[in-house]
Amino acid sequence: MRHVLKMFPKTHITIAAATSVVIAAAILMSPSADVEANRMAYSLDLDEGTVKESGTPSPRPSKQPAADKMSEDKATAASELASISNETQLPGALDTAAAMAEVSEPELQWQEYKIKSGDTLSSLFGKAGFNDGIMLSVIHGSGEADKLQRLYAGETIAFATDDAGELAAIDLQRNLLETLHVEKTEEGFTGETVVREPDVKPAFASGVIDGSLYVAAREAGMSDRLAMEMAGIFGWNIDFVYDVRKGDRFEVVYEELYLDGEKFDTGNILSARFINQGKEVIALQYTDSNGDTDYYSPDGSSMRKAFLRTPINARVSSSFNLQRRHPVLDVVRPHEGTDYAAPPGTPIKAAGHGRVQFAGWKGGYGRTVILKHGDNITTLYAHMSRLGKGIKNGTKVKQGDTIGHVGSSGMVTGPHLHYEFRINGSPRNSRKVKLPDAKPVPKSEMALFKGFAEQQVAKFELFRQNYQHLALAADE
Predict the structure, then answer these.
(1) Which H helix or E strand runs over 474?
(2) Residues 280 and 357 both lie in one domain
């Protein structure tokens, strides 16, 4: 043996020893084929963002950056090893390099199903060819694997099998951005929720009201959701049922969301302007140092009020009138609230933060909830079909919480909400009373907010000017 070693220069022997160490380390540090395959599935789900037709088994295409990079690293190592072997003429080194270069990861086979109403996790596992025993081993796994039990119609579930036909991974795609990924490891199944971050780009829309706000918003390219959000932002200052006039205008800067270069949804409104009967109102979205986000006017006052102007989106069927003739008793009896006609079951929102003072049956009012707000203001909601979940005497509620549902309980002629607003026990017209504002931007942040507001208003003007130039160019 010593004579054989003397045949090679010392430098060659040193290189050979180092190469052996590198190869051994690479083998020990490289994940197994199963782990690689699972990683490939994970990357694939994040990159694809599409689903196939329900119940159509099919292999997923292999777009796996992490796996590709690992293969490239192995090929590079094999190339370097071959180079060293050529220099040193080590026996068997070329064969080892060729073997490493030819290593390929097994491709998982995927079956995807669009979840329909009535589907259960057990039935979906059965469609994919797996029994309840395997299903239980999955949902009893670690991490968030148990969340696989929460299924909703419209979601997509995909099952991956390895070369042996065994379950290797599951992807439950909640939506384009969120996927629950479960994969098999040496310790069993483990799951985690993977959330993709979309690219956010600002967009501008402008419209003039000819009929309704929603028609004008749709003609301006806005979704119904954005139109409702805009109405919610300005709803404390403008009654969109009675105050809006033909010729009123709005301008909105909002988020457009993109995945892989394609628009798939819209995000929040960043800033907006509404001109109502010649009066301009501007709203800016601002997040304070505590992480709380709300809309404010450029002077820092909140766009919200401490109370909603109306606790339900519906038409007024009977106005506040202290001289009204009662429709059932046919006698003059003050109507100390406002009635809103709406279909039975329509949710009723708490007008402001408060505590439930009364919840139950109250004579001619029928099923009723009374909220107390601070020391001197109460609101009453009557004729409900049922109370909201958890609503009882003493319960704390927040503005916008559902406290009940429209009905026709008590002395009424049809389903509607009777809503009263009282200050120090005296009834006030909820549609005309001056509502207290919500909290403004904290004084400690006012200087920072002022700079932010100036910047946002300047951006808004720039968007508006560009939009007008584009509109003029399109008309020419």
Answers:
(1) helix 446-475
(2) no
Q: Strand 167-173 and strand 178-185: pairing?
A: antiparallel
Task: Report if residue 152 sits inside a domain.
Answer: yes
* Helical segments of 220-303, H only: 224-234
- Residue 47 and residue 165 in one domain: yes
Range of the domain at 35: 2-195
Q: Indicate the number of domains in the chain.
A: 3
CB 355 within 8 A of CB 331: no
Domain's final residue, options 195, 213, 243: 195
Q: What pLDDT score was predicted for residue 404?
A: 97
Q: What is the CATH number of the domain that holds 381?
A: 2.70.70.10
User: Of the residues 165, 195, 225, which one is the last residue of a structural domain?
Assistant: 195
- Residue 54's pLDDT is what? 36
CA distances to 99, 237, 299, 350, 352 from 302, in Å: 69, 11, 9, 19, 15
Whether residues 277 and 154 fall in one domain? no
Q: What was the pLDDT predicted at 305?
A: 82
**Token pair of 245 as six digits:** 């006039």
**In a shared domain, residues 165 and 114:** yes
pLDDT at 460: 86
Do 126 and 182 sit in the same domain of this protein? yes
Structure tokens at 444: 């400690």
Listed residue (49, 476, 467) closest to 221, CA to CA: 467
78-107 burial, b if ≥16 CB within 10 A, otherwise e?
A: beebbebbeebebeebeebbeebbeeebeb
For residues 381 and 310, is the Cβ–Cβ distance under 8 A?
no
Q: Are both 60 and 97 inside the same structural domain?
A: yes
Model-level pTM?
0.57
Distance between CA 57 and CA 55 in Å, rounded?
6
* Distance separating the N- and C-terminal Cα atoms of the chain: 92
- Domain for residue 212, yes or no? yes
Joined together, the tokens standing for residue 7 give 């045949």
> What CATH code is carried by the domain that includes residue 273?
3.10.450.350
Phi, psi (deg, nearest 5) at residue 319:
-85, 165
- Clarify whether residues 187 and 204 are in a common domain: no
Pairing of strands 279-287, 199-208: unpaired
Q: What is the mean pLDDT of each run of 10 residues along the chain (476 residues)?
A: 46 48 46 35 33 40 38 46 46 48 68 95 96 95 94 96 94 94 94 94 92 89 91 82 87 94 93 93 92 92 87 87 64 82 94 95 96 93 95 93 95 93 92 85 92 92 81 68
Q: What is the pLDDT of residue 310?
A: 87
E strand intervals along 120-216: 142-143, 156-161, 167-173, 178-185, 188-195, 199-208
